[in-house]
Amino acid sequence: MTEIIPSLLYNDIPAALACLTSAFGATEEMRHATPGGGMHAPVLLDGHRIMLGGGAASHGMASPAESGTATQGVFVSMADVDAHHARAHEAAARLDHPAPQDHGYGRTFTAWDPEGHPWFFCAASPHT
Predict the structure, then answer these.
(1) Separation CA 96–CA 73 (nearest Å)
(2) Is the dihedral angle over the CA atoms 44, 38, 6, 71 positive or is it negative?
(3) Statement: residue 118 has pLDDT above 70
(4) What is the pLDDT of residues 42-93, one digit of tens each?
(5) Kind and range of the H or E element at 106?
(6) Other beta carbons less than 10 A from residue 51's beta carbon
(7) 69 half-sphere exposure, CB direction, 13 A CA radius
(8) 12 near 114, Cβ under 8 Å?
(9) Among candidate residues 109, 124, 126, 128, the one with its CA nearest the CA of residue 23
(10) What does pLDDT average to over the chain?
């Protein structure tokens, strides 16, 4: 079986882990030290893995905090987007609106993690 695992770059992986677990409901799997003194840390969000890692300027990789712009985001389709928004709000995540918005493709909201990656949360639908 092939598993495609998105990888997000962070300068401060422990702070990212704190946000993703408290505000977004992710589960930390483990932390791996890298030979260069950095860290990799996979997390699970409703059974789906996302890898967190440090950027490497020598390889042309940087977090949005370093580059000043996000070049990717994470789209999450879920059953109860309203409850998820409430959790993110209670954890003081940066949110685009005080409540999820109704769009042609479902109820949705955007939250940003501490380093500027956008996370797009949408009510599950048969079309996503």
Answers:
(1) 14
(2) positive
(3) yes
(4) 999 999 999 999 877 767 888 898 888 998 899 999 999 999 999 999 999 9
(5) strand 106-112
(6) 15
(7) 1
(8) yes
(9) 109
(10) 90
User: Side chain identity at 54, as an amino acid letter?
Assistant: G
> Which CATH code, of 3.40.50.1980, 1.10.730.10, 1.10.3130.10, 3.10.180.10, is assigned to 7-59+70-123?
3.10.180.10
Query: Is residue 126's pLDDT more than 60?
Result: no
pTM above 0.85, yes or no: yes
How confident is the model over 103-128, as a mean pLDDT? 86
How is the chain split into domains, by residue range? Answer: 7-59+70-123
What three-state secondary structure class fits 105? coil
pLDDT of residue 34: 84
Taking the C-alpha atoms of residue 69 and residue 125, their distance in angstroms, rounded to an integer, is 30
DSSP letters of 34-87?
Answer: -TTS-EEEEEEETTEEEEEE---GGGT---HHHHSS----EEEEES-HHHHHHH
Structure tokens at 76: 């999450």
What's residue 60's pLDDT? 81
